[in-house]
Specification:
The protein is an all-alpha fold. It has eleven helices and four strands, in the order αααααααββααααββ. The strands form two sheets. The protein has a two-stranded antiparallel ribbon with strand order 1-2.
């Protein structure tokens, strides 16, 4: 299957944003060793993709909430079918189907961004002055040469930690500078990737389902560690995209988790005090405004009348006495 349509789409968005920043007046020449028009074009490529994928992100949150609500039932199935893994998996799949919950939905936004990442990787890897196909994917010769000369703090966006001496010479770059900038960006990429996964897990908790927990561990530890090796082959422009995407994710998740906090589940240990006090039931759904359910007004308590103490004189001795006869 040809991926040319992805390369054309990524190139079009990238060139459109570069043209927009150039029209606004962002200089195409380097300022502080950085060609900001191209850096901003990569940053706003992220914004464009995330806006397009926002409905998918909403579905991801809904699925995660559904999975969290099912945790007590999942735990009951695990106790019921302990030692019978085949039956357990069958019952859990039936439960997910019945409740319309998908354990893999949490990874969907990341999977949908893989083609964008691969497209940008391919487009930026081609930014070699010796490349003969400069007008491929809708580029002009001028745009190609401008992008191939674009730098971040004097390190070309087409360069990478593992660039060969010949590649660096064609890009007119210093090998030490490229390795330092790329190395710092790779560490930031690893850190922000870890934080995005940790942020969500701390808010929603570890899943009881072994399959879901394995996915959580993979996203929390496996992916960041894999970037230590794969980051050496990523062009600096691709790492800028990844870091920007992570920062966008951190902000988006924080906004959603604050506005729509996860429901409190009955999975806390016996005797432990609840983290959240009992609150009024809220309505309105995930994306609706939460409104507190109206509560019935409390009836005023009837005043208590204290009876007379034994041996005490009446408060009004004349009241209740028979009137004296006058004779």
């Amino acid at each position: 299957m040809s991926l040319d349509w992805i390369y054309y789409a990524i190139s079009w968005i990238l060139l459109a944003w570069h043209g927009a920043w150039d029209a606004i007046g962002v200089p195409d020449a380097a300022v502080i060793g950085t060609n900001w028009a191209w850096i901003l074009a990569i940053v706003f490529l992220v914004v464009t993709v995330r806006v397009i994928l926002f409905p998918v992100f909403v579905k991801q949150i809904k699925s995660q909430r559904a999975m969290q609500a099912l945790q007590p039932q999942v735990k009951a199935l695990q106790e019921k079918h302990k030692g019978d893994r085949e039956t357990l998996q069958k019952e859990m799949m039936e439960l997910y189907r019945k409740e319309k919950a998908n354990p893999l939905m949490g990874c969907l936004p990341m999977f949908l961004q893989i083609p964008v990442f691969l497209g940008l990787f391919h487009v930026l890897r081609r930014l070699d002055p010796a490349n003969g196909g400069k007008t491929l994917y809708g580029w002009t010769v001028g745009q190609f040469e401008s992008a191939s000369a674009a730098k971040l703090f004097t390190a070309p966006i087409a360069g990478k930690f593992g660039s060969t001496a010949d590649e660096l010479a064609r890009l007119g770059a210093n090998g030490t500078t490229v390795k330092v900038i790329a190395g710092i960006l790779v560490l930031i990429m690893m850190g922000t990737t870890y934080l995005t996964s940790r942020q969500m897990i701390l808010k929603t908790g570890w899943a009881e389902d072994p399959q879901q927990r394995m996915i959580q561990k993979l996203m929390l530890y496996g992916i960041p560690l894999s970037l230590l090796i794969s980051g050496a082959i990523f062009p600096i422009g691709v790492i800028i995209y990844w870091v920007t995407n992570n920062l966008f994710t951190l902000g988006q998740q924080q906004w959603v988790l604050r506005k729509f906090p996860p429901p409190v589940t009955a999975t806390s240990k016996p005797g432990a005090s609840p983290r959240n006090p009992v609150q009024p039931v809220k309505t309105g759904g995930l994306l609706g405004r939460a409104k507190a359910a109206p509560q019935a007004p409390a009836k005023p308590a009837a005043p208590k009348v204290a009876g007379p103490k034994p041996g005490a004189k009446p408060a009004n001795p004349k009241k209740g006495r028979p009137a004296k006869r006058q004779g």
